[in-house]
Amino acid sequence: MQLKDMVEALLESGHSQASIAQACGTNQPTIWRAAQGVDIRYSTGREIERLYRRVSRSKRAA
Fold it and tell me: What φ, ψ does residue 7 adopt, rounded to 5°?
């Protein structure tokens, strides 16, 4: 799954770009760029992936 798809799923689950950014230790414009499919730092991408997996697990557990 690509980062832009992960960001889209997080947004659909009720997160805002700002809340994703805060959880990932970055800023909202970086999350916007990721949502557009633009390359971002590897470390930020990993944080988005971690958040996506956490949210996905909690949705399955509910």
Answer: -65, -45
